[in-house]
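Duplicate of earlier report; SET domain-containing protein input re-posted below.
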Amino acid sequence: MHRLHAHSNIAKELDKLIDSIIASSAASGVRIKVEATIIHDKPPRGRKNIPDQVTLDTIDVESLRSAHTCTGCAHVEELTPGEEGYQLPSPTNSDSHSPRVADGPEQHGQYDVDTGRSSGLSEVPADDNTNVSERLSTRRRKTVGGLSIPRISTFPSSLAGEAAPSEPTTRQLQTGHDHFRKRRRLENGPKLEQSTVDKLIEGIWKELHNPNSLVLDQKFPEILQDLRGESGKVDLGKPVDTSSFDATTTKCRQITEGARTGRALEVIMQAHWVDSFDAQLATLADSRIYLKPSEQKRATLAKACELFKWTEKELRNRMAIWKGYRDIKNAAGWSALIFAGPGIYRFCKYRLGLDPDALVKLRGLKQRFEIAADTLHLDWRKLLPIVGESAQLHWRGHPHSWVVSKRKDPLPLAFTYRQWDTNFSFHHITESEVDKQEWGDKDPRTLSQGPEFVCELCSQRQSAVAAQNECVCFAEIFGVNAQKNIPVQVFQTENGRNNGVIACCSFARGIAIGEYVGFITKGLANTDVMQSQAGDHEPYQIWQGRCGNFTRFINHSCEPNCQFQTFSWLGIQRMLVISKGVPASKELTVDYSSRYWEQLDKKCLCGSARCRYAHRSGETQHTGNNSIN
Ligand SMILES: C[S@@+](CC[C@H](N)C(=O)[O-])C[C@H]1O[C@@H](n2cnc3c(N)ncnc32)[C@H](O)[C@@H]1O
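Output:
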């Protein structure tokens, strides 16, 4: 589909150019040379036969003057490779082979969970009322020497009748580029600079969502045993064998993981020591009342210097940093310290932005950090007994079984639906499940049976085996380097939309945030489903009422910061949520499409100044009817 759109866009631009030349009466003797330049993001591999620049054709505008008015000669058959006029496949967008969304300004219609306000309102909304088939049906023109546009034969029949939906209704979320207006890139637009505390917070979220950030089964004792040798003493004459690359890599990993956990222990211990120092001063104040506070402090410092074997200056310098750790711990909890990573040292050394506002911000994140830590790192609290805290987990289950909010304690997910469905349950899955009753053993998303799979975007080979996979499109969610834990949380909105999804970290434009997974079925009505179709196969629905992932909770905005897009991975069509540029702490939103809203008698509460459905008289409350009962 991407190729077809690229072709049709080029043809449209070319047509416009030809029209304007003819209209200006300048056609005489004017010819248009059509060239393509291949731009490589990376040094090209295995494309020796493809030149960097190709002249596609030369169009004699004069000869088009008469053809222009002749509608009867508008159709030619699709050309095959080798035939005259056949063109090289187009890349998916003008400057890259990577699967990026349409260019344009960033940060539209974003709901800030901290302020509870929507922001960023400068673009006209996508014209979803335009009949999709009209927009896609770029007819192939018989132009003398012009570009040939492949006929769009795989146009989904479910979309073709979009203008007149049949009963019973299904609120269908729509996918693909076609529903989103192409946007211009903001070359010199304002850039959002994160404050230092925001950088610290983003670092904590990243480490919390990194499955390897805390490894307690360290191999330190064995490594030390290696160094000690058999005699139990350091054996200087017998170096450890480092000749094997694999063994060295494993040892390096073990030491790196161990050191990371050691650093986490170091930071919590140092924060705890500051508390202990203050407690000691308080004890002295009670027991040695004859000493002035400054003398009590000096005595305590002297005692500490003796035990640490440091000078007072060294100790005071370190204490200044450790106090920062303690303040962060008091505001955001132990998990913030354990998952802060190395940035926390610099942050506290220079006291970068740890002002009252920053502390308020950190305080608001304490429970959210702990939910992520408890549900993603079952071992993390095992570090806490060293500072006198319990190792018991507090928040159990899936990270998205908890709904966070600004003003209240986190709530169990089911609790937030109790007013509509007292038996609400949700099964968190990572892969879609096919409804066997409807589809038998067939997966309606299948585009290719394999065994070889070629990416539709980059034309490189896709494979589940890392060494054989050449496709890096959306590598953040497909393939061996896929991110396991996506840094998002389900949160309670404050304006009647019930739950939504908040980005803990920023998501760059074009990044896949997640796959829209659910129950692959068909024939559902009067409920929310994602309607799609693989090639010209039978359409299918993805239903997330009782099972799915966080994408189930993404709300609609008329100026969304994400969009749906299909992508084929290993021959199966997937539905992705792609970022249009989402800053940390903003709500993720998509445009559900006009068709969806036409089926729903309800006000849109997206808060955008360009909202298409804000002025309806329909119900404003969340109905919770996005499930089958
Ligand atoms: C896929 S769910 C999204 C998650 C939902 N808010 C929840 O708590 O389950 C879609 C439903 O959310 C609500 N919703 C989403 N976006 C909305 C918006 N912009 N205005 C009003 N309601 C919205 C509607 O009730 C809609 O049927």
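The two ends are 36 Å apart (CA to CA).

Merging into the original ticket.
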